[in-house]
Amino acid sequence: MDNLLGLLRIKVKRGINLAIRDVCSSDPYVVIKMAKQKLKTRVIKKDINPEWNEDLTLSIADHNLPIHLTVYDHDTFSLDDKMGDAEFDIRPFIEAVKMRLGDLPDGTIITKVPATRSNCLSEESCVVWKDGKVVQDMCLRLRNVESGEVELQLQWINVPGSRGLMSS
User: Does the keyword Heme apply (predicted)?
Assistant: First the structure.
C-alpha cells in the first residue's frame, strides 16, 4: 500500500428509471470496479427506482484510472442480466481535494464538470465544499441499455501514513 493516496467513499444513492429485465420489474444491484477492486451494493427486489443509500469505499492509488459502474438484475436460476453501465473520471474531484480548502462557506462550488458526449454525466456535476469536506454529487446516464440513471456522491477520506495527494 506504499502508493495509496487515500480512500474514495462512493455513496450509491439511487437508480432512476432502470430497465426492466424480468417479467414486470428488476432486482437491481450496482457493481463498482477500479483496477483490481470490485465492490457491490445489496440487491433491491422488484424496483426499477431503487434507493440503495449505500457507502462503498475504494482505495485510490492512481487517480487517473476511470471508475466503472455496472447495474445488474439479480436472477436466482440464471446469470444476472446487465442493466447498463457507466464510467466516470475522478480527476476533477481529486484536483479540488488537492486545493486543501479550509475556510470556505458551506455549499461553495469549487468546480463544475459539464455533461459531455465523452462522459456519462446526465447533467452538470458540481464539486462542492460541504460540512468541511469536498463532495461531488453526480447523476450517471447508463450506457448500453434503453434507460436508466444512477445517482452517486463522492467524498475523499485521507489516510494517515498514506502518500496523500500532495505528492501526486
Answer: no
d(CA 70, CA 89) in angstroms, rounded, equals 15
Cα 57 from Cα 159, distance rounded (Å): 12
Dihedral sign from CA coordinates of 50, 53, 58, 63:
positive
> In whole angstroms, what is the distance from residue 84 CA to residue 38 CA?
17
Q: Is 31 exposed, middle or buried (0-12, 13-18, 19+ CB in 10 A)?
A: middle
pLDDT digit string (tens) for 79-105? 999 999 999 999 999 999 998 787 789
Give the position of cell 487517480. 63
Q: What's the rounded Cα separation, in Å, for the pair 168 and 37?
A: 21
Q: Which helix (H) or strand (E) holds 89?
A: none
101-149 pLDDT, tens digit each: 877 899 999 999 999 988 999 999 999 999 889 999 999 999 999 999 9
Between vectors from CA 152 to CA 32 and to CA 134, what angle results, nearest 5°?
110
Do the Cβ atoms of 88 and 121 come closer than 8 Å?
yes
Pick from 36, 33, 37, 40: which is nearest to 12 by CA? 40
Which 3 state secondary structure label does DSSP give 94?
A: helix
